[in-house]
Every structure is written in structure tokens, then in C-alpha cells.
User: Fold these one by one.
Assistant:
Number 1:
Amino acid sequence: MIAFVSGRVAAVTLSSAVVEVGGVGLEFQCTPATLASVSPKVGTDQRATLAASLVVREDSLTLFGFADEDEKACFELLQTASGVGPKVAQAMVAVLAPDDLRHAISAGDVKTLTRVPGIGPKGAQRIILELKDKIGAPLATRAAAAVPSAGEPWREQVRQGLQGLGWNLKDADKAVDAVADQAGDSPDVATLLRAALRTLSKA
């Protein structure tokens, strides 16, 4: 799996960028915003780094490039929804920033999602239904919510650990609350994570 690529930008077209790596030019399908960020580096010695996602089909291998890992993560998650392929997912991250996508899906905002070409009301409703519990809260909201609980960093560590193991945000939050009384004055994150997993396995 290719996580990212860093190299000289050899060319930019209306929809793609070619990055030279070890004498090989790799072509990435990119959003207009990403292309705009790498265009000034074409033909220079400046290096560009793109987060990469490889889409494998029976008859093709296509690389998609992104300005950062957050945009890439949204692109890949969107494709887990029924009827959303790489082209539609790319259109979504092109029209809506990652936090705008998270907010629209979490809030059930059909109108915002239908701003994306190729997504109608029914498609937007399906995406909301399938991804609402997976998309997570906007990063700005998470940062604001973390301020009051700055004295309990273990909560976020356990929550992230659970999400990394595949649990959605809603279930992770419930499990964190369920083990809060075990934290004490010197919480052990590993112990609390195991306790949270036991809580989830019983649910």
C-alpha cells in the first residue's frame, strides 16, 4: 500500500499531477485545490508530498493524491457507503472540506451533500445513514470539546484506541463513560482500554 509520495512535480493537467519518484513518474488524480497547491512547483527542484490512495479495479490501478491525510481518510471512508465510488468520493472532498463533510453527515444535512455533482437526495440520505456513526465529529468540535476535560487526557486516548480497533465514536464514548469511575487519580490508559473493551463485548 502506498501511503504517500514525495518528489518533484513533473507535470500538472486539469485533473492530475505527475510526481517523479526515483526516475518514475507517478500520475495522481487530484482535486482542483490539491492541483493548485502543487502547480507552482512544476519543473522546479521543490518537492511536493501527496497523501496517496490506490484504487484497484480488475482493469486498472488508479492513484489518487491529496493535500493531507485528513482529506485522504475522508475519501476512503466515503467509499464504504453504498453507491459511492472513487470518482464520487473525490468530488465530495473537492466540494466539501473534511470538517464540512463530517458536519453535514453527522447533522443529516441532505442539502449540503447534494451540492456535490452526482449526489441526489436519496444518495445523500443513504450516505448519512451508513456513515453517521463512522464519520466522527468535526476536528474543530473535538478540539473545543477537549478543553473542559483537559485534566482527563486518558478519555481521548481510550476513545482513540477504541476507534482504532473499529468501534464507532458513539459506542466508544459510551464505553469511556462506563469506565470513568475506574480511572482514579492516576489512570492507567491500557487498563482502562481493556475495561472499555470488556464493556463493549458485553453490550
Number 2:
Amino acid sequence: MSARGEFSSRLGFILAAAGSAVGLGNIWGFPTQVASNGGAAFVLVYIILAFVLAYPVLMAELLIGRATRANMVDALGQISGSRWGRATGIWGFITVSLILAFYAIVGGWMVAYGVQALADLAGWQSFSVWLESFSDTRNILFCLMFIALTAGIVTGGVSKGIERWSVRLMPTLFAIILLLIIYVMTLDGAMEGLKAYLLPDFSLVLNPELLISAMGQAFFSMSLGVGTMLVYGSYVSKQEKLPSLGASVALVDIGVAILAGLLIIPAMYVALHNGVQIYSESGALIEGDSLIFTVLPALFDTMGAAGTLVALAFFALMIIAALTSSISMLEVPVAYITENRGVSRPKAVWLIAAAIFVCSTLIALNFNQLFGLVIALTTQYSQPLLGMMLCIFAGWVWKRNEILQELRTSDEEAEHGLFWKIWPWYVRFVCPVIIILMFYRSL
């Protein structure tokens, strides 16, 4: 095992990388997009686009990472042999740190709502009311707790920290989501939600807005462009066949998104049956933070004693989804500081965590001005452009024979396989065009 650390098993890598991809967006964004965009027709389009767009970019990150065995800055510097590579790596490092800064605030809200369910069980009414209120003190305190949890895991390193916890957290996430689905399906109104989710409306499939929404969801849900998958790829054994490994990660990510829909949409219709408003003024299903912090808590309130236990399970699920993503985000700057500046891992983790917490505090104290702005700058603008840069590096800058050599380390027949016949030209021509179209539309 190299001094850098390495995933000790194939399963460990798949669960860690899928955990990175499975974030809050899968659970609060995907289901409502499905229900509003033609049900199962959207799911079908999403699955196709996940493999048409997200998988090739994911493979670019994994290949660059494993070939260079380095953090994002050094990896792009090595394959390009230029300052542009390193500059792009630093841009990715800054972007992922800013994403983590706002993500930690949202992760803190999940922790607060989870603690609130415990406070309700204990009968601590005034504490419960404070936990639900939107205040600077609550936001900053729970953001600090979330960052500390993330840092605590990353301090352990690759196999003893990230892998060990991913192998525990991801199966727990699946177990909680399945138990909640089974319970929700027994409630009145759930079948209506199931129909809205699963019955396809193919008339909507060719709607350009739907296609671009599905494309964006596929790209962003796999946490591409910011170096998380590149860094995880750098910890993969040379014996592993990367194309099948990448496909496994994509399948787990898609699977969680689809399961989240099986939970959230029927739950929304149960809420509607119980008298909770689930449609916005415009007639669309409520989504995003309003869904998680308004609609679902109102549903839990209508469920009596069982509601508190369901709330506890649901927010435990959300905390796990947030944590598996945040540990991969924190690892990107940590890998750079430990390898480039010779700082020990524990020191690097806590220094970066402290810097990100300062950014989070600034965002929380200027919430109305900064929160939406930081999200837009990082996820709508910076992330797709970084994804395009990675396609350019993998498709145009990195020498083809070097890429083939990397694939041959785990598969001597790589050049005769379907992956090698399609991927090099695809990542060179098709992916950048699709990403530019997406980016143009987001403007």
C-alpha cells in the first residue's frame, strides 16, 4: 500500500464514491423533478443521460486520478505539463471548498432537525421550538457540528476513515430508505403518489426543458467536475478494472435517486391526504428546502406518535446522505495540502475545516445576500465549466497512448474493448458540446 493511502477493497471504493455522489440533491431534488416532468418517462431519460453524459466524465476523473496517483492540482499539472493544468486544479479546489461551505450549513439544518425529533421524544418542548427556528445561533452551531463530524471521519485517512465509514453509512442509508418506503406505502394517499411517480407521460419526454433538467441532474448528482472522483480514483488499486468500477458507482447513485423518489413522492401525497399543502402558487409540486423543512415536518405532525420516529429516521437518512458527500469534498483540499505542503493529515484536515467553517459563518450571517449567490456561482457556473475542462484535458491534452497504458494495467485487452472504441472520441467531442449547451441554458 502506498504512503498516500488506498481503498482496501472494491466494495469500499464503490460505496465511498457512490456516497460522494449520493447527496441531498438526490433526495430532495430528483423526486420532485420526476413527478413534475412526466413521471417514469423522466426516470428513463435520466438513466440514459446519466450514462451518456455523467459516466464518461466520471471515467475521465477516475482515469486521471489513478494514472497520476495525485491530488487534483498535481494530477492536471502532470498530464498537461503546463500551468493551465495546475490553475484548473486550484480552481477546482476553491470551488469544492465553497460548495462545502454552503453544504455544511444545510447539513447542520439536518442535524438540528434530527436532534429536534429526539427533543420531541424526550418532551423538551422549548428546546424543540428553538431547534426549529431559523436563527444565526442555531445555524452556526449545527454547521460547526456537521463540519466537525466530517473532519473527524477524514482525519482517519482513506481506508481507516473514508472507507470504514462509507462501508457503514451507505448500507445504513439503504436500510433506512427501504424501511421508510415500506411504512409510507401503508398510509392513505401513498398509491396516488406512486402513480404520479411511476406512470410515464411520454408526451413530455422530448420537451427541451425536461431534457436539460435531466442532464443537469445526472451531471451534478454524481459530484463531477470538482475533483472528488479524481482524488478517489487516485486511491484505487491498479488491479481494478476502472470502466466496470465507474459503472457500478453510477448504478448505485441512480438506484438511490430512484429509491428516494419511491419514498418522497408517495409521502407528499400522504401529506396532501392529511391536509398539508404540497403545491406551490404556480401549481408545481413544492421542492428543495421547502419540501424538506415545511411539507415533510407538517406531514410528520399529522402522524401522531409515529410521526416523531419517522422524522427521526428521515433526518438520520438526510444526515448520512449529507455526510457521505461532505467527506469526499473535504478530501480534495486535504489531499492537496498534505501532498504539496508536507502538512500532516490531522493538521491539514482541521486547518481546512476551520477555514471552511469561517466561510460558512460569513454565509450564515449574510444569508439572504450570500447563500443563493454562492450556490449559483459554484454549482450552476463553476461546476459545469470545470467538467468541460476535465473533458478537454482527458480528450485533447492527455496523450492517448498514456490513457491506454493506464487501462492496460488492469486489462491487457483494453484496446479491443467497447469502452476504448467509444470513450476517447466521445469525451473529446460529445461531452464538451453537451456541457456547453447546458451551461448556455443555465445563463
Number 3:
Amino acid sequence: MNSETELAPAVKSILAAARERSGGEGVVNVDARSISDALARAEADGRVPVIAEVKPTSPTADGTRTDDPVELAEAMVEGGAAAISVLTEPTHFGGSPEALTRIREAVDVPVLRKDFVLDEAGMDVVAADLLLVIARFVDDLSELVAAARDRGFQPLVEVHDRDELEDALEAGAEIIGVNNRDLAKLEVDLETFESVAPHAPDDVTVIAESGISSPVDARRMREAGADALLVGSAIMDHGADESDVTENTRRLTRAETAESTTETETT
């Protein structure tokens, strides 16, 4: 694990809470829904592959959404989401493993468990199709990636720079998320993905994470090589309880179609 001196106080607090949480009572075994198949279906259908995130709140959110998480997930799928990400971290993000279980039972797309998993015990909490592993927070990335696969999870390894990308590749990661949010200042810069993603091999699925708030952002990340987009706050719209989650998702999944339509209308 890299030095915590470079982390924002909110991130240090999240990690401290993660260390205090216990794992499950036994080893989780998963019969996972294929994320590669889900992304391919979205592409074939003319949709931007979006992993829409059920995130009640966060340290960087403007508010909290109290909607039923299953209803939110179903609305995201209706809007064209290729997969669903569910925050299970309770203290800072208002999530829960129970919400993930309910969502996975209700939708037919892959479900990512997004949490701060630091060791094998942290994996054995709830079944999901994908499991987030943040490279910066893990002591032995290869071991954790292998342990995730042994349980049936598809590990999504999150990186923030070129060095972490190399670590992820050496650990055998096949699905890599490039997070545009800096963990020291919590600032977002889409150039992060643009500078890191081109160095990933073609046979690796690369996902752009954080800071994607509009169709313009979605197209920018796709042009930079994103196979999929992980979007939370722009879809949840924490500042507006009545925001249409289906429409927020649809705006992003149809970003490329909208661009094509605009170009046609202006020529």
C-alpha cells in the first residue's frame, strides 16, 4: 500500500472505517454474469456502455438520496445501463451489502460491488458479479486479484496513474478502471484517463471512472479509449430528490447517438 500521507482526510477516514469492519462468516462463491458480454450487448445496441452507480451519498456529494436502491437500479437499467455498481460502504456512502443483494436479485445485468476491500476477508461479505480492488490500498495486489477470481468475482482493479497501471497489469488484471479523481485533493481531471488509458493493452477492458457528468464528457472518454464508463453522481443527482434517474442514465448511454444526430442536423 502506498503512503497515506498523500491521501485526503476523507479518504483516510474511509480506510480507517474499512479496517474496522469485519468480513463475512464464510467464503463467498459467485456464479458471475459476464461483464464483457454485457458491454458487448450495449455496443451492439448502439448504447454507450455505462456502469451506473447506486450511491446514496459520498464525501463529495451535495446531498443524500433516500430512494429505494432497487427502484434506482431498475430505473438505471431502463435508461440503458449495461451494468450496475452498488456502494456497500455504510459510513461515508450510505451503502450496504443488503442493498446489493436486493439489487442483484431484481436486475439481469452484472452488478459491481464498490467498496474498500483491503484483504480476502473483506471479499467474503456479499455475492456480486464484479468486485472493486483499489490498487493503491492493497499490499499484495496479485494475491487479492487471484483470490477474487477463485471466488468467481470478476475483479475490477482501480488505478490512478501509470505506475499503478503497471502494477495492475503485473497482477494479471483484465478489467482496469482509471479513476479521474485525485485521492489527495479529491479533485477531478478527465486528463487523468487520457494520459493513462493509452498505455493499457488492447486485450484489457478499460473503464473511465469519476467526473463524467455530460454527454460531452462521455464522448471524450470514449474517444480516449474507454470501453465503458462508471458514472455515479451525474446519474444520482444528489442535489435533487426528484431527479429522473432513468433520463440521467439515458443521456449518457445515448451520448454518441446524440452527437451523430447533432452533426447530421448541422450539415
